[in-house]
Amino acid sequence: MNYRISNSLRFAVIAMFFFALTPRSGAQTATSPQAAAPIDLTGYWVSLVTDNWTYRVVTPPKGDYLYLPLNAEARRVADAWDPTKDEAGGEQCKGYGPLGVMRMPTRLHITWQDEKTLKIETDTGTQTRLLHFGPPEAPTGSRTWQGYSVAEWQLPGSGRGRGGQRAQSGTGTLKVTTTQMRPGYIHKNGVPFSENAVLTEYFTIVSDRGATYLIDTLMLEDPKYLTQSFVRSAQFKKQADAAGWDPIPCSAK
Asked: Most CB atoms closer than 10 Å: which of 51, 69, 84, 124?
């Protein structure tokens, strides 16, 4: 699933990150979120593993968490990781929360479940994410691996650059805020996040040399285990159809 990515697209990814974190205003229309979508995220996408290969493609060994902003308690929990215990307890999906699964080698199938809900399905871990537009609802029922995600369209501010002469960005960004997640792992080797963690994502579209790419910038905040925000990105290339779609269940190892 690893494709060569051009320098212009790399530059666009960096530009999209700073663009996404900059507040902006945009008049919201009275149409449904689906009809008002400034970018089209639907279709099949395949991940491009262009960084942190040893953490994303294979499960790193216990205790391998160098350069992660962990506090002492997080390191203690990570050092006690036992994948056999996770499997026996039915918690083999602890590493497949939204942060983890979006950075694994995977394929996405994105559709509109209804005019106010985007659905993201992954073949790795067979996870389903629902991105809800509109006011957040009060929590009901048990927490889930994917939590509860609130989505909103953001329009670009005036004077923003496109981040590369050849790479072209879309005309907007999808911001997603996810809470109510079950406690899980940042990396599959037991590096933890807590039930109070908040994941913020910014989805953008970039076109480069005839191909279309989806960029997901992820920022996890968790005062219980992190000393600062944990920021990463994931890139996906659009596919023509479902070729290669191969559902694989979660694995703790």
From this structure: 124
